[in-house]
Design a protein that fits this description.
- By secondary structure, the chain is mainly beta.
- The chain has one domain: Maltoporin, Chain A, CATH 2.40.170.20.
- The protein has a 22-stranded antiparallel β-barrel. Strands 3-8-9-6-7 form a 5-stranded mixed β-sheet.
């Protein structure tokens, strides 16, 4: 453990003794200040426990509760970005020039992989995206849930369980669980119209310029409707249109003419989302419920520029060179229905949930140089599709056994079927045309080579899990919890996990809590079967790189083996302090993950004549595949302190300080099992540093929210420790630097129904350290895109709110 983390632990736990002896003055708690979670101190949580009426501060494991008001009172209208501002251990970087990852960005919890956090909707498993992050971004190799596929207007609260929970919820819950709880309203409604854009000075290595871009319009509304005398139907819809941003530096190459030729930044987005959530009581105490959602998102990001003198440029088509654009249409569908009631004294819940994500790829403003001047400039580059069908049956019952409270026993099963499909693009997107005999020319659409018929897959698998969980108050101060789960997968076998948790309340003001658990994450179908050819940038050069399934002949020759599940062991110890309007939680953790799945190095044909003989017939210059064998140890501490102060004349205040100190160490990584001699390296310093230093080891967010009559205001400062974006050698690493980002906003409520908010995120126009000119030979990467707060600069916005 680093000195930074050790100091944080010592500070936190030494403070407990002093705090538990203090008596802070009590204040009236009539109404929370704006921005403070409504009744957050008493918010009942359902994530991590199946016992009834457990509040955020009464849980056996740390749970953050973020309300709809908190999510909508942000400058950003993206759910994942708003959560990253509210939860200290969650980060949401903004990768660029990484193909599809630009459009479907992954979030990370406690510095772990994006697919090691389970996402639920109303307590049921959410489907993953069809996207595999195969390029050089945080989360490389993961196929994660797209959090931005759900509009914030559809949500009532979000619960983030910061503890291993595979024994309770199944695969993926190694880092924790994000549970999205939908609105349940039979009356009322609201409409928010938000406009914002960046006003910034871009100070890159080769000069500075002013930019006003990224104009974003978001219209979001919801309406509650009655279903009969006792049911509800809550409808929500959101439309978002965003212009792209560009933070590339000047291109120093002669053919560039001293201008910016690239586009490093947010993609252009046009997106529409609808959601519906319903519930209706039936006879005999039963209730029917369900929800449905659909999102259509068109996004367009940029690849690396091709200048006029590039060998793969066709001057007759692009006399000044061209900038390929990678466009993705994402269609995301979710449908759910269920029944809950009582069977023989057991609270029973039966659910059936279907989710599907389809990504259609297009390559625009491009060409296939092997077709010469006859090449198309727009290509259908293929499609990836993932869907999931989940049946769940859950049973809970309380037993009075003469202790200080009832024993809560839960058990159930989850049956899941998943499918994954890759569909080829048009022939010109991947073929070598009439000029294909010229080996200096790259085949396929430049920027994003289309999926080929040889890439097409259609795979499925089944999984069944059984679990049992018990929560028992042994005394009025001591509560224990235990969970066991067994899962069986049709493609790799079974897995067993367990968890033991306990909490001891020394006084009503002070408690200790802790847990030990094992976890697992099954290899996704995307990781097992994804295959494609992509244009990958290595040392500033475009290298056509093939990704192969681990079971393929080429991958096995290069050292691949069939994928197995990741396993983990989680240890947690925390404390809770409550004193009047003040509360403090400190939670330390240690997470050991074995057999972690990662994407191998890009093995270049220049490594050896044997590798070249494998790759040359396929028309590619490098190969990669998924591997097991990475072992990591993650340790750290989360600290969250809140204080509410209500005054008679100065207004009501809510103060929050939330910090995450986190350290990830790669303790073991796979060595080659290739039959080649010499054997290629499967995992090197770039991948290790991405695991260890790709997310901040310290993040501290402090905020104050104020309310007085119709006026509200909020100020927030977030500190991010420096992050490393690794290069091929230590001399080519990028660093973001230690940075603090300040956000300000103010609101006025004209009437009970009409309000206006004005705000500025990143008031002082803070950027990560720019990429040195010596490491940016083409000007593309003006700033490191590993930056945990992005690299777009100051953002101003206005929001008009209507409620009824």
């Amino acid at each position: 453990m680093t000195q930074r983390t050790t100091r944080a632990l010592l500070f936190g736990f030494s403070s407990l003794a002093a705090l538990s002896c203090l008596a802070l003055p009590a204040h009236a708690q009539d109404a929370p200040a704006s921005g403070q979670d409504d009744a957050v101190l008493d918010e009942i949580v359902v994530t991590g426990t199946r016992a009834a009426n457990r509040s955020r501060l009464d849980t056996l494991a740390p749970v953050d509760v973020i309300t709809a008001d908190t999510l909508t009172n942000r400058g950003t209208t993206e759910l994942a970005a708003a959560l990253a501002q509210a939860v200290p251990s969650l980060t949401f970087p903004r990768p660029a020039v990484t193909d599809g990852t630009d459009s479907i960005r992954p979030a990370t919890l406690r510095g772990l992989q994006p697919d090691q956090t389970l996402v639920l909707v109303n307590g049921t498993r959410r489907h993953a995206s069809a996207l595999v992050n195969v390029n050089g971004s945080v989360g490389r190799g993961a196929a994660a849930v797209d959090l931005n596929a759900i509009p914030t207007g559809a949500l009532n609260t979000v619960e983030v369980l910061r503890d291993g929970a595979s024994a309770q919820y199944g695969s993926d819950a190694i880092a924790g669980v994000v549970n999205l709880r939908l609105k349940e309203a039979r009356l009322g409604g609201g409409l928010n119209v938000t406009y914002g854009q960046y006003f910034t000075e871009v100070e890159a290595a080769r000069g500075s310029r002013d930019e006003e871009d990224g104009q974003t319009v978001t219209v979001s509304g919801w309406q509650g409707l009655a279903l009969g005398s006792d049911g509800f139907l809550t409808l929500s819809a959101e439309y978002l249109q965003r212009d792209p941003t560009n933070r590339s530096d000047i291109d120093p190459r002669a053919a560039a003419g001293g201008r910016v030729t690239a586009r490093l930044g947010d993609p252009e987005v046009d997106q529409f989302t609808v959601f519906a959530n319903a519930g209706k009581p039936l006879a005999a105490g039963w209730e029917a419920y369900g929800w449905a959602g659909f999102q259509d998102r068109d996004s367009e990001s940029a690849a690396f520029p091709r200048l006029s003198d590039n060998v793969n440029n066709v001057a007759a088509v692009y006399p000044n060179g061209f900038l390929p654009l990678i466009a993705i249409n994402s269609q995301d569908l979710s449908l759910a229905g269920g029944l809950r009631g009582v069977i023989a004294g057991w609270d029973a819940d039966f659910s059936l949930v279907y989710g599907r994500n389809a990504l259609e790829y297009r390559t625009e403003n491009s060409l296939n140089s092997t077709y010469g001047a006859a090449s198309p400039t727009s290509f259908d580059s293929g499609e990836t599709i993932y869907d999931q069908l989940v049946f769940g049956a859950d049973f809970v019952r309380e037993f009075e056994i003469g202790l200080s409270g009832p024993l809560t026993f839960a058990w159930g099963l989850e049956a899941r079927r998943e499918t994954y499909e890759i569909v080829a693009g048009q022939p010109e997107s991947y073929n070598r045309g009439p000029l294909g005999g010229n080996t200096a020319l790259a085949g396929g659409a430049q920027g994003f080579v289309g999926f080929q018929p040889s890439n097409e897959v259609d795979q499925d698998r089944d999984a069944v899990g059984l679990y049992a969980e018990v929560e028992l108050p042994l005394t009025d101060r001591l509560t224990v919890q235990g969970a066991l789960r067994v899962e069986d997968y049709s493609d790799f076998g079974d897995n067993q996990t367990g968890k033991i948790s306990a909490r001891y309340d020394f006084t009503p003001n002070f408690a200790l809590r802790g847990s030990i658990s094992t976890g697992f994450r099954a290899p996704s179908l995307q990781q097992s079967f994804y295959t494609a050819t992509a244009s990958v940038i290595q040392s500033g050069q475009v290298v056509e790189t093939g990704t192969f399934p681990a079971t393929s002949t080429i991958a096995q020759i290069l050292g691949a083996e069939p994928l197995d599940a990741e396993t983990s062991t989680n240890y947690a110890l925390g404390a809770v302090v409550r004193l009047g309007g003040f509360d403090l939680t400190i939670d330390a953790y240690r997470i050991v993950i074995e057999d972690q799945i990662a994407l191998s190095e890009n093995i270049n044909r220049t490594f050896s004549p044997q590798v070249a003989s494998l790759l040359d017939p396929l028309g590619i210059q490098a190969a990669r595949f998924f591997i097991n064998g990475v072992e990591t140890e993650t340790q750290g501490v989360d600290i969250v302190a809140r204080y509410r102060l209500d005054t008679e004349t100065a207004g009501d205040f809510a103060f929050t300080v939330a910090a995450n100190f986190n350290e990830v160490d790669v303790t073991r990584f796979p060595t080659s099992t290739s039959v080649l001699n010499p054997a290629p390296t499967l995992f090197n310093r770039q991948r290790i540093l991405t695991f260890e230093e790709g997310t901040p080891d310290t993040k501290v967010a402090s905020s104050v929210d104020w309310e007085l009559g119709p006026w509200t205001a909020s100020a927030r400062a977030t500190y991010y420790a420096s992050v490393t974006q690794p290069g091929t050698t230590a001399a080519s690493d990028y660093f973001t630097g230690d940075k603090t980002v300040v956000d300000l906003s103010g609101s006025y409520q004209f009437t009970d129904r009409v309000g206006l908010t004005l705000g500025v995120d990143n008031v002082f126009d803070e950027y990560p350290d720019f990429t040195p000119a010596s490491l940016n030979s083409n000007g593309v990467l003006g700033f490191p895109f590993y930056s945990p707060f992005g690299f777009n600069g100051r953002y101003a916005y206005a929001r008009l709110s209507l409620n009824w």
